Amino acid sequence: FTIIGKTVYSKEPFTHTLDYSYLYGKTDGIISGDRLAGSEKSEYAFSPRMYLFNLVGAGYDDVRRIDFQYEISPGLGMQLLNSTNWNFVLKGEVGLTYQEQRLATAPDKTIYSTRFAQLFTWRIWDKLTLDAKAEYLLNMEDPGDYRLRFDATLRYPLMKNLSIDFVDLA
After folding, report:
1. By mean pLDDT, which of 17-21, 114-118, 121-125, 157-161 is the weakest?
2. Sheet architecture: strand order including 66-83
């Protein structure tokens, strides 16, 4: 099972997004997922198309033997496309990421990465929205070591501040 929460607060020129997720699962009686992750992203829009951001996150992953990890990722974002006819927005982000992992069975790990991200929002119908995010994090000390993250959410509002979300996390 998975529990996901998200809240967004926006008052120009600032936007704050708080995300958290907890995943737990068993396959054939063996724990196949046990992780908690939370993040907070603050954005400051200094023009209609450009913004600065800082993303901080923390959590653990028992299956991957990560007792605790946190990351800090400042950067610059830009709205690449905003189509009012097709109701979609495409943004690109670039930044640096510092991540530290406390590992259960190995020495602690510190990773410095460059972060490239693409964020896509499409309002399919009046009340149905698709959000997708893809991130590529390249280890600056070992270019052969990289991370890819992708998630997509299909959102339908039930009330003013409550929606049902179908999420695919990869």
Report:
1. 157-161
2. 2-11, 14-27, 30-45, 50-61, 66-83, 88-103, 109-125, 128-139, 146-159, 162-169
Give the chain's mean pLDDT.
91
Summarised one tens digit per residue, pLDDT across range 99-109 is: 999 999 999 99
* Residues paired with residue 41 on neighbouring β-strands, in sequence order: 17, 55
> 3-28: b or e for each residue (b if 16 or more CB lie within 10 Å)?
eeebeeeeeeeebebebbbbbeeeee
Between the alpha carbon of residue 156 and those of residues 104, 114, 164, the distances in Å are: 40, 34, 5
Which whole number is the average pLDDT over 75-90?
Answer: 92
Residue-level pLDDT at 77: 97
Report the alpha-carbon distance of residue 162 to residue 76 in Å, rounded: 30
Give yes or no for residue 170 having a pLDDT over 60.
no
Token code pair at residue 95 = 């930044």
Token couple for 119: 């964020």
125 neighbors 104 (Cβ within 8 angstroms): no
What is the enclosing helix (H) or strand (E) of 45?
A: strand 30-45
pTM, entire model:
0.84
CA distance 165 to 159: 13
Q: Using the 8-state DSSP alphabet, how is residue 1 labeled? A: -
